[in-house]
Design goal:
With 313 residues, the protein is of the alpha/beta class. The protein has 2 domains: 5-171, Rossmann fold; 172-213 and 244-312, UDP-galactose 4-epimerase, domain 1. The chain has helices spanning 13-26, 42-45, 57-67, 80-85, 87-106, 142-161, 187-197, 216-228, 249-257, 272-277, 286-292, 300-312; strands spanning 5-8, 31-35, 49-51, 71-74, 112-114, 117-118, 164-166, 168-170, 172-174, 200-203, 211-215, 240-241, 245-247, 264-267. The strands form 4 sheets. The chain has a 6-stranded parallel beta sheet with strand order 3-2-1-4-5-7, with helices on both faces. Strands 6-8-12 form a 3-stranded parallel beta sheet. Strands 9-11-13 form a 3-stranded mixed beta sheet. The chain is globular and about 55 Å long. One of its GO terms (molecular function) is L-threonine 3-dehydrogenase activity.
Length: 313
C-alpha cells in the first residue's frame, strides 16, 4: 500500500523542511501539505496544498478521505513564548488538534501519527544535566503543560486502542530556512541572522544559559527515522528524549567569532529567561539510540559553518 502523508502545520518552522524532505522521499503526489493559511512559498507552490484549521475535525477527516491518507504529521502548535501570551488558545490548539488526529486513528481512518513533544515537558524540579527519559516532569509553561498532557494521551490511545502514534521531544531547533517562530530557544537562530546583518546581537537569555539544541537537518532525519522504524522497535509511546548538542549563548557567540571576528554580543534577559531556567541543560537520549538507532550528526562547529554559509546567500 502506498504511503500517503498529510502534514498539518506544514508552513511552520519544522513543517516547512519536513514537507520538503518527505516530498523528496515519497513523491509530491503522496505528500499533502496543509496549514491555516495559504502563503506564497515553496511548500504551497511546489506540491499539493490545502487550507485546513487544525481545530476542525470535519476538515481533517475530509482531507484524509479525499487523499486516502495513511500517515499524519501533526506539526501545528503554539510555541512556548507565544503560548504564554495566549494560554487559553494555546491549550485549545495544542490539545484538541491532537485529539482529532488520535480519534481518527482510533476509528481506523489513518494508520500512523507523528506528534512532536518538546523539552518543555520538563520543569524546574527536573534534574538539569543529562535529563533522563523517565524523570520528574513539572512544566511551568502552557506549552510544556500541553505537551506533557499530550504525551499521556498518546500513550493512553496506544495502550487502550492500539493507535500507532510516535513522538520525540525536540530540543531547541536551529535552521537557516525559516524565521524564528516564537520559541525560547530561538535566540540560537536569530543570533546568526543578526551577526550577518548588524555584526552584533542582544540576547534575551543570560550568557551562561545552557540549553539542548539540534540542527534542523538532524531533527527532520529523526522524525522520519522514527516513522519508518518497525512498530515493534518503538517501545516508548509517550515521547522519546532526543539530543544533539548543548551550548550557551556565550559559546555560540565564540563559535561565530571564528568566522566573523568583529561580532559582538550583549545580554538583556527578559521573561524567556525564566522559561529557559526551567528546562534541562543536557538530555539523555539513550532510549532513542537503542530502540531505533538514532544518532545526531551536527556539532556546534559544523552547524555554525552551514548556517553562516547559507544565510550569506
Amino acid at each position: 500500500m502506498t504511503t500517503k502523508i498529510l502534514i498539518i502545520g506544514a508552513c511552520g518552522q519544522i513543517g516547512t523542511e519536513l514537507t520538503t524532505k518527505l516530498r523528496s522521499l515519497y513523491g509530491n503526489e503522496n505528500v499533502i501539505a496543509s496549514d491555516i493559511r495559504k502563503l506564497n512559498n515553496d511548500i504551497v507552490n511546489n506540491g499539493i496544498f490545502e487550507v485546513v484549521n487544525a481545530l476542525d475535525y470535519n476538515q481533517i477527516e475530509h482531507l484524509i478521505e479525499q487523499y486516502q491518507i495513511t500517515d499524519v504529521y501533526l506539526m501545528a502548535a503554539l510555541l512556548s513564548a507565544t503560548a504564554e501570551k495566549n494560554p487559553a488558545f494555546a491549550w485549545d490548539l495544542n490539545m484538541n488538534s491532537l485529539f482529532h488526529v488520535l480519534n481518527l486513528a482510533k476509528a481506523k481512518k489513518i494508520k500512523k501519527i507523528f506528534w512532536p513533544s518538546s523539552i518543555a515537558v520538563f520543569g524546574p524540579t527536573t534534574p538539569r544535566e543529562n535529563t533522563a527519559q523517565y524523570t520528574i516532569m513539572e512544566p511551568t509553561t502552557v506549552y510544556g503543560i500541553s505537551k506533557q498532557t499530550g504525551e499521556r494521551w498518546c500513550d493512553y490511545y496506544h495502550q487502550q486502542y492500539g493507535v500507532d502514534v510516535r513522538s520525540i521531544r525536540y530540543p531547541g531547533l536551529i535552521s537557516w530556512t525559516t524565521e524564528p517562530g516564537g520559541g525560547t530557544t530561538d535566540y540560537a537562530v536569530d543570533i546568526y541572522h543578526k551577526a550577518l546583518e548588524n555584526g552584533s546581537y542582544e540576547c534575551f537569555l543570560s550568557e551562561d544559559t545552557k540549553l539542548p539544541m539540534m540542527y534542523m537537518d538532524d531533527a527532520i532525519r529523526a522524525t522520519i527515522e522514527i516513522m519508518q522504524a518497525d512498530a515493534d522497535a518503538v517501545t516508548i509511546r509517550s515521547s522519546y528524549n532526543l539530543a544533539g548538542i548543548s551550548f550557551t549563548p556565550k559559546e555560540i557567540a565564540e563559535e561565530i567569532k571564528k568566522h566573523l571576528p568583529d561580532f559582538t554580543i550583549t545580554y538583556k534577559p527578559d521573561f524567556r529567561q525564566k522559561i529557559a531556567d526551567s528546562w534541562p541543560a543536557s538530555i539523555d537520549d539513550s532510549a532513542a539510540r537503542a530502540d531505533w538507532g538514532w544518532a545526531h550528526r551536527f556539532e556546534m562547529d559544523s552547524m555554525t559553518e552551514v548556517m553562516l554559509e547559507n544565510l550569506k546567500k
